[in-house]
Amino acid sequence: MISFTLLQLEAFVAVCRHGTMTRAAQALRKDRTTVSELINCLEIDLGCELFDRQTRPPRLTPSGDRLYRQAVLFLQEAQAFSGIASQLAGGESQSLQVSYDVFIPHSMLVSLSTELAKSGVTVNLRCEPRSQGEQALAEGRADIGIYQALNRPVGQSFSWQTLGAIEFAVYASPMLFSEKPVTMMALASHTQLLPWDFMPEYLAQRLQIADHTQSANERELLIALLQARQGWAMLPTHFFTRQKAGVERIETVMGRKGMLHPVVALWQPGKVGHTTLRHVLDVAERSFTV
Prior knowledge:
Blueprint: H1 6-18, H2 21-28, H3 32-46, E1 51-52, E2 59-60, H4 62-89, E3 94-100, H5 106-117, E4 121-127, H6 130-138, E5 144-148, E6 159-172, H7 184-189, E7 192-194, H8 201-207, E8 213-215, H9 219-227, E9 233-236, E10 248-249, E11 259-267, H10 274-286
Parallel strand pairs: 3-4, 3-5, 7-8
Antiparallel strand pairs: 1-2, 5-11, 6-9, 6-10, 6-11
Helix pairs in contact: 1-2, 1-3, 1-4, 2-3, 5-10
Domain HTH lysR-type: 4-61
Organism: Izhakiella capsodis
Protein name: DNA-binding transcriptional regulator, LysR family
C-alpha cells in the first residue's frame, strides 16, 4: 500500500531541485508553510528523514539522496500515465515520435511502425544527427531516439539501452582500386564519401580514414557517386542487402570482417508508457544481430 501522495513527492523533488523550501514554494506556486508540511508528512509516512535541517540550506540525508532519483522517476511515470489516460478519455489515438540517425536500418523502422500499429500507436519517424535528436528528446519533441553509441555517459537526463550493433565495411566501384586487398594508404589517398554535411566527431574517430572527404546526405545520391568512381565510403552492410550495380564491398588489409558499432535507444524516464516502451525495445532488439 502506498503511504505517500504525489503532492508530497512533488514538494520533495522541488526542494531538491531549487535548493530551498522558499524557492520550491515559488516554483510550485504554494505557500512555504504548505511545502514544509508536505515534506514533514512525507518523512513521517516514509519513516525516515530526507533533509538535514541543521545545515543552511538543508541538505539531503543519505536516505533522501537515495530516494530523490526514485521520486523523479515515479513522478515522470505518473505524468506519462496521466497523458495516456487523457488521450484515451478524449478518444485520441496514441502517437510516438521516434528520432533516428542515418545508419539505422529501414527494415527495423518499418517493423517498429507495423508492430505498434497493431496496438493503435502511430509511429512518426524523423532522421537527424544524434545531437539534434538529443535536443528533441530533451524538449519533448521526440519520445525515443535510436542512434549509434557515443563513447561518453548519457547523463541523468536519459535512460538508455543497447539494442545491438551495426556492421560497417568499405564500399566502392570495383574499378576504383587497382590492387586488392586495399591498403590503408590507398584508402587515405582517395576521396572518402560521407553521408553527412559534417562528420560527427564520435564517428570521425572510428570511420574517417581519408583526409579529403565529400559529403552527400542522401543515400541514393551517395551510391550514385560510388558508382561514378568519385570515391569510396565506409557504410553499414545493411545498406547493401540488395546488390547495387557498380558498387561492391571492398576487401582491405583489415580482412573481410567488418567493423561493429553499437546502437542504443534513449528516452526520458516516464515520457513513454512502460508497455509501449517495452514494445519498442523488443522490436528494435530483434532487428539487430551482433
